[in-house]
Specification:
The chain has about 325 residues and is α+β, with helices and mostly antiparallel strands. It has a six-stranded mixed beta sheet, sandwiched between helices. A four-stranded mixed beta sheet has the order 1-4-2-3. It is globular. The relative contact order is 0.16. Bound molecules: adenosine-5'-triphosphate, thiamin phosphate and magnesium ion (MG). It is an enzyme of class 2 (transferase). This is Thiamine-monophosphate kinase. It catalyses: thiamine phosphate + ATP = thiamine diphosphate + ADP.
Length: about 325
């Protein structure tokens, strides 16, 4: 049976040696940030809450654990730098699966140039991966609180795919673009850094557009007029549900890991041009308002009540319900 130190060695072997004053192996990592401010975030993925071992490979789990943290750094406009990784593993977890998890994480870390500088192992009944990630800012952070009435609201990519992917995995489907969005979210790091030059506020959509837009509105003390028929939906979601239902699923979403950005109208043309040049897809979906209420209209002009987003402690959150 491999011991704790074999686990540490196996995991570290997946990553290049970090170029920091003190890396893995001592009581703390020691980092030397450049002069800009540091962003710090932490997020966990937990077996049977964020993934199941029947539907995610170890590499998917490693990828997703880092992706959800990178998405928070992206939402602030930060450049990813260093992370630590706390793993809780069942006692019988095979070492080769740990290596596969490490390789899935290391591939995404390499793509975003973030270095593993430390971590922790513990035994546990369920598998969980908790990361703390840092990023550096070269400009003021993109917070949730800076939006003003009249700012235009943009969303990146497409919404609702990861939710569809989860339902497909629960129904036994193991392939396709929606399943990939659920297992392998791609954090919008480059877009976040670009958006920090133009946007007044931003956040990443992890709990669903309708919930996370509420956070932006509350923090910025604004309301919103959202155009449902502008919500970007993928061909896969549209094919699975039809356009009208696809838009409702895009609104409810969950685990989209897209960015929601408020941009002052005077900066919107330059923002759109910069996104075009960098091949970053963004869609204008509404406008922020002085009246602190929500106005969502469907294509027929009917007002809609926003659906609830994901809440870990709500009674129905252990699973997406069959009638949901
Ligand atoms: N245990 C905690 N101690 C201190 N602050 C916390 C704690 N849990 C959450 N927060 C803070 O509350 C805010 C909302 O947390 P939440 O986890 O919903 O973040 P999020 O970015 O909206 O979502 P996600 O976790 O999906 O990235 C964050 O600023 C977070 O730092
Ligand atoms: C097995 C399983 N059950 C449910 C879900 C759905 N889910 C889990 S966490 C979350 C919101 C974001 O997480 P957090 O708020 O922790 O960042 C969502 C939509 C899933 N992916 N897998
Ligand atoms: Mg977030």
């Amino acid at each position: 049976m491999p011991g704790e130190f074999d686990f540490i060695q196996r995991f570290l072997a997946c990553f290049p040696r970090a170029r920091v004053p003190v890396g893995p192996g001592d009581d703390c990592a020691v980092l030397a940030p450049s002069r800009g401010a540091l962003c710090v975030t932490t997020d966990a993925v937990v077996e049977d809450v964020h993934f199941t071992r029947a539907t995610f490979s170890p590499a998917d789990i490693g990828h997703k654990a880092l992706a959800v943290n990178l998405s928070d750094l992206a939402a602030m406009g930060a450049a990813p730098r260093w992370f630590v990784c706390a793993l809780a593993l069942p006692r019988d977890f095979p070492v080769r699966e740990l290596s596969a998890l490490g390789r899935g994480m290391a591939a995404l870390a390499k793509a975003h140039r973030i270095a593993l500088v430390g971590g922790n192992f513990t035994s546990a009944r369920e598998l969980s991966v908790t990361l703390t990630a840092t990023g550096e800012l070269s400009h003021p952070p993109l917070t949730r609180a800076g939006a003003r009435p009249g700012d235009l609201l943009y969303v990146s990519g497409t919404l609702g795919d990861a939710r569809l992917g989860l339902k497909q995995l629960q129904a036994g489907v193991r392939r396709g673009s929606a399943v990939r969005r659920q297992r392998r979210p791609e954090p919008r790091v480059a877009l976040g850094r670009l958006a920090a030059r133009f946007a007044s506020a931003g956040l990443d959509v992890s709990d669903g557009l309708s919930q996370d837009l509420g956070h932006l509105c509350a923090a910025s003390r604004v309301g919103v007029a959202l155009e449902l028929d502008r919500l970007p939906v993928s061909p896969a979601l549209r094919a699975a549900l039809g356009l009208e239902q696809a838009r409702m699923e895009a609104l409810r979403g969950g685990e989209d890991y897209e960015l929601l950005l408020a941009v002052p109208p005077a900066r919107a043309p330059a923002f759109e041009r910069a996104c075009g040049r960098s091949a970053e897809r963004v869609t204008r979906v509404g406008v922020l308002t002085r009246e602190r209420q929500w106005k969502i209209r469907d294509a027929a002009g009917r007002p809609l009540t926003p659906p609830d987003g994901f809440d870990h402690f709500a009674r129905s959150s252990r699973q997406i319900q069959a009638d949901d």
